[in-house]
Structures are given as C-alpha cells and as structure tokens.
C-alpha cells in the first residue's frame, strides 16, 4: 500500500435543518485529518418553491446552505476514491433530493467508473425510532448496484459504544431541538477516518491510471 497516497473523498448530503449538515462536516474533518482531500457537497431541492414555502424557514435555510456548498456533480463522483452519502430520513427511507443525485450517476455506472470505489452512509431523523437504521440500510442497495465497496463502521472505535450505528453516523434531533452532541460528532469523525483509511488501502495500491 502506498502510505503517501492522498485519498479523494466526496461527502454528498442533503440537509434541511442542519443536523445532517453537521454530521457531514464532522465526517469531512475526520477524513481530512487522515490525510484525505475532501469535497463537501449539498444536494439541491427537487420540489417546487411553493411546496418549500409551506414549511417555515425551509427556503431561507436552503439558500444559506446552497451558498456554502456546491451541488454534487457526476464529475465529483468520478473524481472520488470514496463516496459518503448522507440524508435525513423521509418516511423511513432516503430523501428525494439525495436520491435524485444518485439516479444521476447512471452514466458513470454504465461505464463502470464507480466499480471499486469506497461507499459509506450516514443520516439523521427528527424523531426517536424515526427510521435512521432503515434509511442507512436502504442506501446500501444503490451502492451495491453502482459497484461501490460498502464500508460500515461496526464497533471498530470506542466512539461506537456511545452513539451512532454500526451502519453509519446518525443523529436524532427531537423535532430540531437538539444538535448533534460531542459523542455523535465523534462517531462521524471516526467514519471520515475509517473511509479515508480504507480508500487508501484499496486505491493506494492501484496503478496511477486505475486509481485516478
């Protein structure tokens, strides 16, 4: 393994009320600390402005986050050695915003350009037992179709015995009254480190053209 290899990590997420955003930033911190180059991207809304206006603050928060993060692109996924996807749960499953991004990767899938890249997932819910684990497990399915090598967290770090799930970092905001605490952010940082470490091990030993 080339220990000097600098893995490229894409963290693509959707967040409406910042819980998933905070986990995404902690994952990026962990990956960066492990020597990775990170692109942090927020998926864009796919519903109408009129529908967004029915939820107080949604439009304003979306504008603020979109000013902070570029939208994820097909080129970002092509660039990355590892793709980490994050979403709030929507009725026990992935948000339509992040799913739309995944669905847009069909061209890369057809060319086989995603085969062998690392894949990992994280998410947040508003309510206790609101679908965190079912959402993360459901995200493994498109990752398998894309040819990603799925990297769960297991219990490979002491942080995992305090928060999160073995499938990925999570948070419960309790109707957006709680931000991710130190324990949950520690899990997210561990996820970033783990993804970067595995990507280095898998991709760092490849010939330069194959790892690009």
Automatic annotation (TrEMBL):
<keyword id="KW-0288">FMN</keyword>
<keyword id="KW-0285">Flavoprotein</keyword>
<comment type="similarity">
    <text>Belongs to the WrbA family.</text>
</comment>
<dbReference type="InterPro" id="IPR029039">
    <property type="entry name" value="Flavoprotein-like_sf"/>
</dbReference>
<dbReference type="InterPro" id="IPR005025">
    <property type="entry name" value="FMN_Rdtase-like_dom"/>
</dbReference>
<protein>
    <recommendedName>
        <fullName>Flavoprotein WrbA</fullName>
    </recommendedName>
</protein>
<dbReference type="Pfam" id="PF03358">
    <property type="entry name" value="FMN_red"/>
</dbReference>
<dbReference type="InterPro" id="IPR008254">
    <property type="entry name" value="Flavodoxin/NO_synth"/>
</dbReference>
<dbReference type="InterPro" id="IPR010089">
    <property type="entry name" value="Flavoprotein_WrbA-like"/>
</dbReference>
<feature type="domain" description="Flavodoxin-like">
    <location>
        <begin position="9"/>
        <end position="195"/>
    </location>
</feature>
């Amino acid at each position: 393994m080339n220990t000097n290899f600098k893995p490229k990590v894409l963290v693509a997420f959707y967040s409406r009320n910042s819980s998933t955003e905070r986990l995404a930033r902690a994952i990026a911190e962990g990956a960066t600390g492990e020597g990775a180059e990170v692109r942090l991207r927020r998926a864009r809304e796919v519903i109408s402005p009129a529908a967004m206006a029915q939820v107080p603050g949604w439009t304003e928060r979306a504008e603020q986050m979109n000013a902070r993060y570029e939208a994820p692109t097909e080129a970002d996924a092509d660039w990355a050695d590892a793709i980490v996807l994050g979403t709030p749960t929507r009725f026990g499953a992935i948000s339509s915003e992040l799913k739309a991004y995944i669905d847009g990767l069909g061209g890369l899938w057809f060319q086989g350009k995603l085969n062998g890249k690392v894949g990992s997932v994280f998410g947040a819910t508003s309510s206790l037992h609101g679908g965190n684990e079912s959402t993360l497990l459901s995200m493994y399915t498109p990752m398998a179709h894309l040819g990603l090598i799925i990297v769960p967290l297991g219990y490979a770090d002491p942080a995992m015995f305090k928060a999160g799930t073995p499938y990925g970092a999570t948070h419960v905001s309790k109707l957006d009254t709680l931000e991710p605490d130190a324990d949950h952010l520690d899990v997210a940082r561990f996820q970033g480190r783990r993804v970067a470490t595995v990507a280095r091990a898998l991709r760092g030993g490849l010939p330069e053209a194959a790892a690009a």
